[in-house]
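Work Package 3 committed the consortium to producing structural models of liganded targets before the mid-term review. Because experimental data for this complex are still outstanding, the team generated a predictive model from sequence and the ligand definition alone, so that downstream docking and mutagenesis planning could proceed in parallel. The input record is reproduced below exactly as it was submitted to the modelling pipeline, together with the SMILES string for pyridoxal-5'-phosphate.
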Amino acid sequence: MTAATPFALSNEPPRPASHLFYMTRLRRPLVDRAEGIYLWDTQGRRMIDGSSGAMVVNVGHGNRAVIEAMKRQMERVTFAYRLHFENEPAEELARRMAEKMPGDLDRIFFVSGGSEAVESAIKLARQWAVVTGQANRWKVISRFPSYHGGTMGSLAVTGDLALTETFSPQIRDMPTIPAPRAYRDRDNFSMEERGIRYADMLEEKILAEGPESVLAFIMEPIGGAATAALVPPDSYFPRIREICDRYGILLIHDEVMTGAGRTGRYLGGDHWDCRPDIVTLSKGIGSGYAPLGAMAASRRLVKPVLDAGGFQHGYTYAGNPLSCAAGLAVLDETERLGCVDNAAAMGDLLKSELEQLSKRYPFVAGVRGKGLLIGADLVADPDTFAPLPKAKNANQRLIDLAYERGMIVYSRRIRGDGIEGDNFILAPPLIITAAQVGEMVSILADSLGALAAELDLPVNR
Ligand SMILES: Cc1ncc(COP(=O)(O)O)c(C=O)c1O
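The resulting structure, written out as tokens with the ligand in place, is given here.
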């Protein structure tokens, strides 16, 4: 392995103006190649992929078995439209995924990404309600903050004002309840009591909206981009299911980020007994080798919809043979390499190292997460979780300082409803070794030290 050459973002060689545009004007180095947990740019500089891209590359970069499986599929057929042909990789992947789903969620609908999976879940739920004589039900309650995607339907259930505000006149407003950020609460209740209190907010919202109008509740079992690996108290899950059952409301688990082994179980929800009606997946199931997403739904929902004439929904690339061949090989590699158990073991190590760092850098607070989805807040006061002043731009500075030291850190700022603040996630590929966790921790420690110096934050020596 070549030694890491530091990136100097301020000193990037000039490049011609680009015709491409994404979220910001920020330019980044050109990627050249990738292997395992590392990426190299065209100047040969190495970077640790500390967030698996956007929590995507679960089996690591450059996996030969996945690449070979894709090559074999490309030699056979790369596209056949699902209304003209069925294909073996899609059939087989659906069978294998159904085995991994909880309860009777053995009906699989493939898409190309997470937003499409969430759209599909909302539309299947709605169509099920219509064909079973419950056409009044249309509201999908979600949590604030949360992230469920960038398309209009998934944005309607996303709790992040920075992303939704501009589009609000075009989106049908959906009700929200607070995300169970019990770790921040300063009251006399136990964590378990807080879990019940947060879950009961769902019941209060259902009653306020009118139970007959509520279709579904969507949640990330373990938080992603919006809450940086938020883990609810154990008591939250059974209570949520109980409330959904009481009012005939469907429970959708958005496992786009937490699925495919990321949290040390195949699904994030597998840490609890939660029985969702629909699960959405993407990111790790294609592991960055091909755009792939899926919705797994209970037979109980799918059968009446198909009996009534069919699911009025679909995408051109749904069930694409190349994407599904990649997905199958990713699943094989996930099992062969023991990725799920490794995520649990390496996640414990990374989390305990981050807890140690938070003692030295007390502006890192609320270390949380499961498996290799570990998060923390960047705060002004670790006791009250008071956010850092916005002007300090802590989230972007942490990204840049780590980047300059050769590691990608995923960091966000959440705003709105008085729960503002910076956070970050560590989520390397699930094949990471203990030595590589050490490498990550040392770059992070160095970056946090630089952040403290630059923003005048406290350090315990
Ligand atoms: C929980 C969750 N749902 C949905 C999405 C949207 O996925 P995509 O960006 O693939 O459309 C994301 C993406 O980060 C996510 O984390």
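Reviewers should note the following from the model. Residues 54, 113-115, 118, 147-150, 220, 224-225, 254, 256-257, 282 surround pyridoxal-5'-phosphate (CB under 6 Å). These observations will guide the Year 2 experiments.
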